[in-house]
Sequence to fold (201 residues):
Amino acid sequence: MHGPASPGWLLVALCAASGAYCLLRMRSPVEDQRRAAGGEAVMGFAMAAMSVPAAVFTPPAWAWPACAAVFGAAALHALWRARTSAHHLHHSVGASAMVYMSVVMTLSPGSHHHAHGGSGVPLLTGALLLYFAGYVLLSGARLVPAPTGPAGGGVGGMDGRGTADAGAGADRATGWGDRPELARACRLSMGMAMVAMLLTL
Fold:
């Protein structure tokens, strides 16, 4: 899993920052968002730990089986909750990918924390790569700002100034943990990190 030091540290920073923002999202008054953010925070920090350069930290032999067990339970839980929300299917796939990478690192010859090229199952690795690459493209497209109305005319009304003031008030009232565009950017970052990590299998 661990590549050259510089890209490894970039992945660590990206995943840790995503995990930290997900912790901030756990302060949301919306219960479903708090639960989703908690799972994403665990995944972000686990991905950061997986990306630490090998010369800096060597996890104990039991770390990867434990990680596989934790994310296996998370995958089943997300799959159960997908009955009410399709977004939990993505959480289930993400947790399953973590299980897969943990198993590969456990079985890699000569090391308990390196996933050398060819250690994974090519078909499964390719399927996960296609899924997360598609997810990254779709998430990136959703972050593109939608076209606004004519200049001077606010959305949903003729009083541009009044609409702008209302929008500014809404922005001030919305906490950083409740901004949907930041949540999408966070998930996009973790999707990109997942693609980078799968490429090393």
Observations:
- Residues 110-116, 151-173 have pLDDT under 50 and may be disordered.
